[in-house]
Amino acid sequence: DFSKRIEARQTDEVGNLAASFNTLASSLEAVDQKRREFLQNVSHELRTPLSYMKGYTEAILDGVARDREASLKYVSIIHNETERLQRLVHDLLDLAQLEGDSYPMKDEPLPFAQLISEVADRFELSAQQKAIQLVRNLYDEIIVNGDSDRLEQVVSNLLDNAIRYAPKGKPIRIILTEEGPFAVLMIQDFGPGISKEDLPKVVERFYRVDRARSRKEGGTGLGLAIVFQIVKKHYGELNIESEEGGGTTVVVKLPLFE
Ligand code: ADP
Predict the structure, then answer these.
(1) Pocket lining: 249 vs ligand 1, CB cutoff 6 Å
(2) What is the pLDDT of residues 22-57, one digit of tens each?
(3) Which residue intervals define the domain HAMP in the entry (predicted)?
């Protein structure tokens, strides 16, 4: 129980010590509170797909699905929810590893433009389905230090979001430049943007501006939290510039290879 406080009115060393203890107790309490919130979120996120799966399985078993078509519809819902659970567990494990200190991260020189291009290629199909053009403007010479799988994951999560939240027909710009000792990757979309109030929270685990929309589009609410951890582990910076109605630009800065 971290809520206990030491009473101390003295202004001497004992008083100072008591004050330090109280500050420490408050921050432990805050950590504990975050941990509890996280567990609540995880439970909730796991429970939702599970209850769909249970409900539709029971409907089939009880003979509610009258014909083959109805059964197939139910099975396909169960399948979707299974996939959602799979993504969720995968992202959770990923995040737990990344947040730990012992996670092995490769440290190799990487041609960044090439890595970004390869990831963008994989998104061409889903972009085309929304008539979205991925406009690339990548400075070829840039080399960064890092873990290629993890940096691919950064680009992939960001493009995934941009395509998910951008409207049909609007382009997405992918820009790679150099700025002092940093490589700067910018992914810009012309989607709904993020309000001032929500902006500081979107990198938090499970925070979504529109839960229903994220769920419908298959999001886990962990994408940006994972991006943030990977960028941090590469001694980089993550900035999100966005305005409600004005699109979003995610900026990733990574130290250049030296
Ligand atoms: P999700 O799986 O829900 O996309 P993320 O952690 O990737 O989870 O993002 C958290 C939330 O931030 C999203 O639910 C969405 O509300 C908001 N968001 C992220 N990227 C964008 C974007 N490009 N445009 C608008 N909103 C975004």
Answers:
(1) no
(2) 899 989 998 999 899 999 999 999 999 999 999 999
(3) 1-33
